[in-house]
Amino acid sequence: MMKKTALCAILASTALVTACQNTTDKPQEIKMSAANAQPIPSQQSSTNAAQTGVINTSAINSQVTVSQLATLKDDSQVRLTGKVTKSLGDEKYEFADATGVVVVEIDDEAWQGRAVTANDTLTIDGELDISHLPTKRTKVDVDTVTFH
């Protein structure tokens, strides 16, 4: 008990501590009250992240449609489901879903040696790349391809 109390005292000097009084095995985020140095459980919670143990939720690819790409910032992580409708050369392809068309760049290795037709549905994970010169162009740099 003494070691646990000493550990809590050390951790209390930081902004976040693991709840020492927690009787479950799950850690709990705690914020310290400046007025009385009492731990206050955090009101922030991301249910999905907490359930999966994910800390860096910004790295999770968000399922979006092609039309939603226009509302996102450069370098956003995205997940799209649709079809590659044609090859544009130099590892660039036209990718379409029910809402629109976007250029995607898929490295040869990401294809995993599989042949794909315009009838095959794929899910791609990657990063949105928006360039503004000479005109605004949007493409997705694909990291992984999942075949359905």
In short:
The chain has 148 residues and is mostly beta strands. It has helices at residues 2-11, 47-52, and strands at 16-18, 29-32, 39-41, 62-63, 77-89, 92-97, 100-106, 121-131, 137-147.
Distance between the termini: 54 Å
What is the topology, as strand order, of the major beta sheet? 5-6-7-9-8
Mean pLDDT: 75
Fraction of residues in helix: 10-25%
Low-confidence stretches: 1-48
Count of strand segments: 9
Number of helices: 2
Strand content: 35-45%
Secondary-structure-based class equals mainly beta
Description:
With 148 residues, the chain is mainly β. The protein contains 2 helices and 9 strands, in the order αβββαββββββ. The protein has a 5-stranded mixed barrel with strand order 5-6-7-9-8. A 3-stranded antiparallel β-sheet has the order 1-2-3, with no helix packed on it. The longest helix is centred in the first third of the chain and has 10 residues, at 2-11. Mean pLDDT is 75; it is low at 1-48.
Give descriptors for this structure.
148 residues; mainly beta; five-stranded mixed beta barrel; three-stranded antiparallel beta sheet; 2 helices
Task: Indicate the topology.
Blueprint: H1 2-11, E1 16-18, E2 29-32, E3 39-41, H2 47-52, E4 62-63, E5 77-89, E6 92-97, E7 100-106, E8 121-131, E9 137-147
Parallel strand pairs: 4-5, 7-9
Antiparallel strand pairs: 1-2, 2-3, 5-6, 5-8, 6-7, 8-9
